[in-house]
UniProtKB/TrEMBL annotation, chains A, B:
This is Aspartokinase. GO terms for biological process: diaminopimelate biosynthetic process; homoserine biosynthetic process; lysine biosynthetic process via diaminopimelate; threonine biosynthetic process. Catalyzes the phosphorylation of the beta-carboxyl group of aspartic acid with ATP to yield 4-phospho-L-aspartate, which is involved in the branched biosynthetic pathway leading to the biosynthesis of amino acids lysine, threonine, isoleucine and methionine. It comes from the Bacteria. ATP binds at residues 7-10, 185. The gene is ask. One of its GO terms (molecular function) is aspartate kinase activity. GO terms for cellular component: cytosol. Pathway: Amino-acid biosynthesis; L-lysine biosynthesis via DAP pathway; (S)-tetrahydrodipicolinate from L-aspartate: step 1/4; Amino-acid biosynthesis; L-methionine biosynthesis via de novo pathway; L-homoserine from L-aspartate: step 1/3; Amino-acid biosynthesis; L-threonine biosynthesis; L-threonine from L-aspartate: step 1/5. It comes from Actinomadura macrotermitis. Its EC number is 2.7.2.4. Substrate binds at residues 47, 74. Keywords: Amino-acid biosynthesis, ATP-binding, Diaminopimelate biosynthesis, Kinase, Lysine biosynthesis, Nucleotide-binding, Transferase.
Length: 424, 424
């Protein structure tokens, strides 16, 4: 008998019909002889509706109270799901994050999980019950206030519970079939990836693939919890996110490149004419860090000998753009830079693959593909298993398609690459 | 500095504007130098909407899950209210029933309060915070499941917290100005009662006056918590519900009769032809009690000597009518009665007043007034401070008005009776 943690997102429980369908799926898993813990998000637009309500009474609601408000969303969906399961003749009990033992720090709206003490869940499982747990929420250590985990919170709840319960697998359900080699809306020939390592999935998530949140993958890697990303609308196998050793053992002919991710949500700031002195760059990034802005890529030009000045460019979430600009303008005199340039019409394309470690020439092929598509590269950054470039936002689709094709990821070709050894 | 517990019902927090208005009222109370604890119900129709959702996924939802679902309602209203108060520059913290220390038994949907341990509320008050507490909900002792208190739950939460915190007063806000001598929709000359004893208020509540629930008044009487029933739409004094000793001390010229209550929600069942043997009536009422039906009035006719049989009539909430009829039909053979008659077109009129203890003739005046209005009395029951009669439902308005007039309760007259001694 396996212990399976399943997580259903808001679109999977959008209305009563969806809730009943998910209930059937859960009951089928239970009937197959498994213990089942389900983590559920708020229904469809519930969270947005609650935020609207908050804005109607206060322009800047206190974070503690916003958390109290928003956690009503999962409370509703989890109770309804438990009822729907009971209606199919199976015992189900719902638990809030607090009841499930999800202990967090006190950072309302973006709390971090400190500990998971799922004693009540374990006891309910032992009594044969299906457990439904509210995603996205916890209770703060010490003050015992209700907290929310912020973006990707429900996925993280699921993986954290799976780790604490020593579950066999954490299944993440959404409305897509798994992780693809590229966004199928851009590359119709994109193919579902059957298995991917935590490291590659982390790079995919950090590069704009929205299917799993970075945080949840990090948690899964730390505790070595296999994640199965799949659709709640089909019975098909999805994508397994597992330890790299589990992949290399199973698939000798692993593809060099796992996929091409893209991200339209970033902007680029260029600090023009920074005096080329020791510590100036450090000051710039300390200021941004104090404003709690996450920087992605950084490029510093060689300084012009004639002026003793240089330009520093970096990318960041465009939602943080205004905050970053005003933080930098406050230290303009102190640093002595000349001006700021802001561009939110950029996009990032990333090539991810553990295979690129051992295959030289990947970078050259990637750049050649993009150049061949007539797209100009503005910035470059690399990790051991990823190459990212910044291009004009309008060029994203063209560049993604070109890279996908250049690495033989298109569906017909890929079958040969991945399954070549077996002859299928 | 006083400690004031205020309770706002669903109509007082029906939308964002209402929430903001209530927030101003709470802040004014705080600014006047009081510690303030607020108990709040779910907004407007929220509870009904949640019940609708439950019915969409399950015809008979488990009580535990229904409680989990419904408690989302107060969670939303209390968080919004805390936000609205914060927006006025005052610190406010919301607490669930569980966080506020409302400990109940495990009877989901109709839990009873076992204990109140408001340590977190006390600590927040000591730090100068306004406390907002979810009404209607608690947490079960032992299993620590979320429970709801059932009808009148939020009022009971408020009184229970007031008792546990040793508050100076519990203010119950609704959309009416206080407790009236009769329903003003039936008797336009009905007058607001300035002060009424717990005992009289209990009889009023039990007799169909909907403004305060029986349970909340019982709780207040047990702990001697003064209740101030008033409107959230005006600043007028409402009705004080207090210990009778506090009334007799203040108002020498107390009215004999406090008010006339009525109730259209009951039905009458007559068990026809019951064998006149010892224990037959006991069997009937044991069967009904096992079906968890609350009986109100009972009348047993003298048995006809010729047949050795008698009729037993009783009243009960008409919502329990079908359950009662089928429970009785199951024991028809065993008891040997002839038939059942059911009538839900009845109404009950009750005259309540502590003064009737020491004033003979009240019963005679009451019956004469009803007879004088041409209304037939079907059943009678009395307590020390109440007389109730059952009449045809269509006669309710006529009979209430006649009784109200007969006891000089109409507005012009009453001023003379109640305030006669002071000359006002």
């Amino acid at each position: 008998m396996a212990l399976i943690v399943q997580k259903y997102g808001g679109s999977s429980v959008a209305d009563a019909e969806c809730v009943k369908r998910v209930a059937q799926r859960i009951v089928a898993t239970k009937k197959a002889g498994n213990d089942v813990v389900v983590v559920v998000s708020a229904m469809g637009d519930t969270t947005d509706d609650l935020i609207d309500k908050a804005e109607q009474v206060s322009p800047l609601p206190p974070a503690r109270e916003l958390d109290m408000l928003l956690t009503a969303g999962e409370r509703i969906s989890m109770a309804l799901l438990a009822m729907a399961i009971a209606n199919l003749g199976h015992e189900a009990r719902s638990f809030t994050g607090s009841q499930a033992g999800v202990i967090t720090d006190g950072a309302h709206g973006k709390a971090k999980i400190i500990d998971v003490t799922p004693g009540r869940i374990r006891a309910a499982l032992d009594e044969g019950s299906i457990c439904i747990v509210a995603g996205f929420q916890g209770v703060s250590q010490g003050t015992k206030d209700i907290t929310t985990l912020g973006r990707g919170g429900s996925d993280t709840t699921a993986v954290a519970l799976a780790a604490a319960l020593n579950a066999d697998v954490c299944e993440i359900y959404s409305d897509v079939d798994g992780v693809f080699t590229a966004d199928p809306r851009i590359v119709p020939a994109a193919r579902k990836i059957p298995r991917i390592s935590y490291e590659e999935m982390l790079e995919m998530a950090a590069s704009g693939a929205k299917i799993l949140h970075l945080r949840c993958v990090e948690y899964a890697r730390r505790y070595n919890i296999p994640i199965h990303v799949r659709s709640s609308f089909s019975q098909k196998e999805g994508t397994w996110v597992v330890d790299s050793s589990d992949i290399e053992g199973h698939e000798m002919e692993q593809a060099i490149i796992s996929g091409v991710a893209h991200d339209r949500s970033e902007a680029k700031i260029t600090v023009v004419g920074v005096p080329d002195k020791v510590g100036e760059a450090a000051t710039i990034f300390r200021v941004l860090s104090e404003a709690e802005i996450n920087i992605d890529m950084i490029v510093q030009n060689v300084s012009a000998a004639s002026t003793g000045r240089t330009d520093i460019s970096f990318t960041l979430p465009s939602s943080d753009g205004q905050t970053a600009l005003s933080a930098l303008n406050k230290v303009k005199e102190r640093i002595g830079f000349e001006s700021l340039r802001y561009d939110d019409r950029i996009g990032k394309i990333s090539l991810i693959g553990a295979g690129m470690r051992s295959h030289p020439g990947v970078t050259a092929t990637f750049f050649a593909a993009i150049a061949g598509a007539g797209v100009n590269i503005e910035m470059i950054s690399t990790s051991e298993i990823r190459i990212s470039v910044v291009v004009a936002q309008d060029d994203i689709d063209t560049a993604v398609a070109a890279a996908h094709r250049a690495f033989d990821l298109d569906a017909d070709q890929v079958e040969a690459v991945v399954y070549g050894g077996t002859g299928r």
